[in-house]
Every structure is written in C-alpha cells, then in structure tokens.
Design goal:
By secondary structure, this protein is of the alpha/beta class. It is built from 13 helices and 15 strands. The protein has 2 domains: about 110 residues, 3-Layer(aba) Sandwich (Rossmann fold), CATH 3.40.50.720; about 180 residues, Dihydrodipicolinate Reductase, domain 2 (2-Layer Sandwich), CATH 3.30.360.10.
Length: about 325
C-alpha cells in the first residue's frame, strides 16, 4: 500500500478552501494542518482538520512532506523560501512576487534544497486550452501566426485590493501572459500595452487601469493580442483563438448548459458562467493532482518557478509600456 503524502496548507480563504476540499477527496493524500491568521474554525472543524494561526507550525512539522501556499501574494516568496529550507515540496499560487530579484532569490533557495516547486497557473490544465496547445504542437493549424485572448471579469475588485495586487497586468493579465507562452511554446520578446479607466474611477485613483489591450511579439515570429476588462456585465468572458497557416482553433465560453433556443425572434443561449471558480473548476482539480503526481512520481513540475518569473517579467514590461506609451522589450 502506497504511503499517503502528508500536506500542510497555508491560507484558508476562497482559493484555500477550494484546493483543500479537492485534496480531501484524494485517496493518497492527508491534509494534516491548515494555517491562516484568521482561521475559520467552523469550516476547519467541518472538514475534521487541524487548524493553526501560526504558519511556522507547518514548516517545523517533520511529518509534512509538501506545502500548499494559498496565502496573499505578498507572503508567497518568503513562504516558498521557508518551505524549501524545511525540505518540503511546494505548490504556490501565482505570483511568486512582484519583484524579479525576490523571485530569483526564492528560486535559488528551492534549487539549493532540491525540492519541487509548482506555480498555480491553473489555466494550463483547462481541457479546452489544452486542446488549443495540442493543435499548435501537432501543427494541426500549421505555422502559428496569431493568438487572440479575451479575458474579462464579471465585476471589478475593490480598489483597496488593486493597490496591493500589482495592478491589472500582474494580477489579472499574468494568467494570459502565461497562456501565450504555454500555447505558443515561445518566449515573449516585446510588449505594447494601452489602457484606460472606464469601469471604476476608484481603480484609477488607486493608480491602475480597468480596461487594457496588450500586443506581444514572440521569439518564434508569431504575434499575440490580449484584451482585458474588469467588468463584463454578461458574465466571466474567457475566449482564446489560435490562428495559423492551415486554419484556426478557438475555445469559447463555458455556459451552464449547451442548449440553444431558436425562434423567429432570434437565437438564445445561456450566458457565460459568472465566476472564475466555476469556469475553472476542472483545471483547479487537475493542477493539484498534477502536483501530487510530481511529488509522488519524483518528476519535474510542468509549471515551474521559471514560468512564474517569465510571466511576471512580461507583466512588468506591460506596466512600463503603459507608462511610457511605447513598446518595451521583456528583460
């Protein structure tokens, strides 16, 4: 009988509860401790978990094999470093940090201590987007020419959140930057970003934009475009098209049902799903399953720390491009 992998979870907010519930369904995993300074005791007890407000309880526990870091972004790098020094494998939500030097320091410690690190770019594990990547890899669409991404949230976040999140490019578009790299199999050389405050004036007062378009030049010669909005009144809008010399493949929005009503008045279908946890439910489960297999099978993670660093560098270049109103090379 295979030994159960013993885990510690850091962060019991919305995403922390989602990942924990997924882990509790896995037969060869035991969630020993969950840490959060504002721990929801009723939720912890309902899951028969051990809760703590002190994250060091997880790092110092020699029984814990791996740590799932789902805390606010500002703590990710320091917790990655602490987990690596404790000899524990790590799954961490994006971003690692907003400072590339801090990311590099964390990755250096991970490498030094020989632990595995997977970054939570869950969209790579979405079945529709995986089909797009397969179409590019197998050259079903021939030579890749364009990637077009529409990524629009159903409602804007509080302006207070925006102040600490790094802004739209490092909080929201970072998923799309990673998706461009994932789909193309290439690196981004240059970005040009433009943006406006059209949804919420408070986001502008916080120093950010809520509507943006980013164009990207890739090293393999292809181009990409991303459009973002913090508010799509019809739901969570997530669409991608890859276009090449032999055709195109598109992933459309997920809806509650696939039924379509057609009448003389028009064609009616369900709106897109309204929340990211619903839209990407399968991908969240798949990414954490992949992490467990990475540790148990002693294989390299499919989304590693360098992927986290690359997406952050693109985000910082986009931020600089918006400020300068000119194309910026990704350094």
């Amino acid at each position: 009988m295979m030994k159960k992998l013993i885990l510690g979870v850091i962060g019991a907010g919305r995403i922390g509860k989602l990942h924990t519930d997924n882990l509790l369904r896995m037969p060869n995993v035991h969630v020993k401790t969950i840490a959060d300074p504002y721990i929801d005791k009723n939720w912890v007890e309902s899951r028969q978990l051990t809760g703590t407000t002190n994250v060091d309880d997880i790092f110092s526990d020699k029984e814990i094999d791996a740590v799932i870091i789902l805390s606010p972004s500002t703590y990710h790098a320091e917790q990655i470093i602490a987990a690596a020094k404790a000899g524990k494998h790590i799954f961490c939500e994006k971003p690692i940090a907003l400072d590339p030097d801090l990311i590099r320091e964390a990755l250096s410690v991970v490498k030094q201590h020989g632990v595995k690190l997977q970054i939570g770019f869950n969209r790579r594990f979405d079945p529709d987007f995986m089909r797009l990547q397969e179409a590019v890899q197998t050259r079903k669409i021939g030579d890749l020419y364009l990637i077009k991404i529409a990524s629009r949230d159903p409602a804007p976040p509080p302006a207070e959140y925006v102040k600490d999140s790094g802004g739209i490019f490092l909080d929201m578009t970072i998923h799309d930057f990673d998706m461009v790299r994932f789909l193309s199999g290439s690196e981004v050389e240059e970005v040009f970003a433009t943006g406006a405050v059209l949804v919420d004036p408070d986001i502008g007062k916080a120093g950010d934009v809520d509507t943006a378009i980013v164009t990207l030049k890739l090293k393999n010669g292809a181009l990409a475009s991303i459009d973002n909005s913090r508010q799509a009144v019809y739901g969570y809008d997530q669409r991608i098209e890859v276009f090449g010399s032999k055709g195109s493949v598109a992933a459309l929005n997920n809806t509650e049902t696939r039924t379509i009503y057609t009448s003389p008045d028009g064609v009616i279908s369900d709106r897109p799903l309204d929340f990211f946890l619903e839209r990407y439910q399968r991908s969240y489960l798949a990414e954490i399953e992949a992490f467990i297999q990475t540790v148990v099978g002693d294989i390299d993670p499919s989304v590693d720390g360098n992927d986290g660093l690359s997406a952050t560098l693109i985000g910082l270049a986009a931020k600089k491009s918006l400020e300068l109103n000119q194309p910026v090379a990704v350094n």
